[in-house]
Amino acid sequence: MEDVRQPRNVAILIFDNVEVLDFTGPFEVFITGSNRGKDFNVYTVAEFDRPIISLGNLSVNPTYTIYNCPKPDILIIPGGWGSRIEMQNEMDSRNIK
Questions:
Q1: Of 20, 23, 59, 91, which is least surrounded by CB within 10 A?
Q2: How many Å from the N-terminal Cα to the C-terminal Cα in the chain?
């Protein structure tokens, strides 16, 4: 009998001025190591439902917002110049699942 388990949710937080490799690298690692999607459900999350402009002006559409995303088992917080601003973000966490 094969042990069946649910894929673990991996949320990757993205924000303006995020370093591209800092979120795409982990995304690729979890997807590649996911046994064709059986082990990890990988998705991007942002504070708001709007395109995120990373360093180098790459526009990225988040899959979810922090208010409607599946509960993550693993949370990846990438770096970049935008992380310095986000560390000061005092958003209202009462609306988060």
A1: 59
A2: 35
Task: Check: pTM over 0.90? Answer yes or no.
Answer: no
Instruction: Kindly report, residue by residue over 62-71, the tens digit of the pLDDT.
Output: 999 999 999 9
Confidence of residue 87 (pLDDT cuts 50, 70, 90): low
Question: What is the spatial distance between Cα 37 and Cα 87, in angstroms, rounded to a whole number?
Answer: 31
Place of tokens 């949710």: 9
Q: How far apart are CA 28 and CA 51, in angstroms?
A: 20
Looking at residue 94, the DSSP 8-state letter turns out to be G
Domain ranges of the chain: 13-85
